[in-house]
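Structure first, sequence second, as always.
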């Protein structure tokens, strides 16, 4: 086995430099920092996965206003939760948040198991690093984190070769993260590690001139800051196509269907989707006889992390259709319901003028979001 090189700094030196930088330049007034309960920290950590702080803040504040504690969240419907998550992306996070709240209430008496890392990590949607962040941030107990910001910072500081998703590379990074984690000021330290990667050791443009580690950073010494961490081996994203049916009645309502509870846009409400025009027309003949098709709208692309979806909206009108199937509902864009909507569906619905089936004025809807 190849022996790993030693860390570039002793833990106490690393901690002193990092916390000195944080005291002067870190973020101290984020909404979830006041007050730091396990519930508030947990919601913020889940929202912050793959999402920037500025985007998260208004979602977090709306979420706290509606669900001020885990009992309120556990007692809510999935529709209510996903409605407040709409537009934040990666919808599995919202579904898992709801599931975890119910586990906390049903199996832990409404209290987060913050004194047991394994129990925290076992909650839906959490895992080892997020569990560590929740424990450290809400209780001050010693717990190690290794989110994307920390991986990037440690990879550059030590010029760690390889994609962090590889088990051997990840083990090396966990060892470094554990090596540097202190036993005091855990709340500040974990926030400092996240802030350092997000605001200074940034992905595209690291600010090496202001970095408290620029004299020991191996990537900086080599002039290879952008090479670390190494990217995941790339492969071309496949493209799929779909027709989305915009079936409107004379009251201006649009027919929606609820997606299955897991998978693409799981649990969200969306437009009926079809692989081709033939299957769409067969569906209308069976479910909405008498519906009349209008010219289709221009196609647009929605980008997921693992494929591209080319969407063609297909408007149709029916005078009235009172009977709808299971997991279907009529939706009035002028008086929207509090339900979770797939992001491109929300964009399409917001572009509808009452009682029209013509394409919306201005540019065709285009929404790109890495979500599931």
């Amino acid at each position: 086995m190849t022996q790993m090189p030693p860390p570039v700094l002793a833990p106490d030196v690393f901690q002193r430099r990092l916390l000195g930088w944080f005291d002067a330049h870190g973020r101290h007034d984020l909404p979830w920092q006041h007050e730091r309960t396990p519930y508030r920290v947990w919601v913020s950590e889940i929202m912050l996965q793959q999402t920037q702080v500025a985007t998260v803040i208004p979602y977090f504040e709306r979420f706290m206003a509606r669900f001020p504690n885990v009992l309120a969240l556990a007692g809510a419907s999935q529709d209510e939760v996903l409605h407040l998550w709409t537009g934040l992306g990666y919808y599995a996070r919202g579904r898992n948040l709801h599931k975890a709240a119910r586990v906390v209430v049903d199996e832990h008496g409404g209290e987060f198991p913050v004194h047991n890392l394994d129990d925290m990590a076992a909650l839906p949607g959490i895992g080892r690093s997020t569990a560590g962040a929740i424990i450290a941030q809400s209780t001050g107990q010693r717990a190690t984190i290794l989110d994307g910001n920390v991986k990037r910072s440690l990879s550059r500081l030590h010029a760690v070769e390889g994609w962090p998703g590889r088990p051997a590379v990840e083990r090396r990074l966990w060892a470094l993260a554990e090596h540097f984690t202190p036993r005091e000021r855990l709340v500040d330290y974990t926030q400092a590690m996240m802030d350092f990667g997000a605001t200074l050791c940034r992905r595209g443009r690291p600010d090496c001139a202001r970095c408290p580690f620029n004299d020991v950073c191996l990537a900086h010494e080599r002039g290879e800051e952008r090479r670390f961490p190494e990217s995941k081996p790339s492969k071309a994203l496949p493209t799929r196509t779909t027709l989305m049916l915009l079936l409107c009645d004379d009251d201006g309502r649009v027919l929606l269907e609820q997606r299955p509870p897991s998978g693409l846009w799981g649990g969200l409400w969306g437009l009926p989707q079809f692989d081709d025009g033939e299957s769409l027309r067969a569906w209308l003949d069976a479910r909405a006889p008498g519906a009349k098709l209008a010219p289709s709208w221009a196609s647009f692309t929605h980008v997921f992390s693992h494929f591209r979806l080319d969407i063609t909206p297909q408007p149709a009108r029916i005078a009235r259709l009172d009977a709808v199937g299971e997991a279907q509902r009529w939706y009035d864009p002028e008086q929207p319901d509090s339900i979770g909507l797939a992001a491109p569906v929300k964009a399409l619905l917001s572009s509808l003028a009452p009682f029209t089936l013509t394409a919306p004025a201005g540019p065709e809807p285009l929404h790109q979001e890495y979500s599931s």
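Margin note: Strands lie at 239-248, 254-258, 269-270, 273-274, 292-293, 300-303, 308-317, 328-331.
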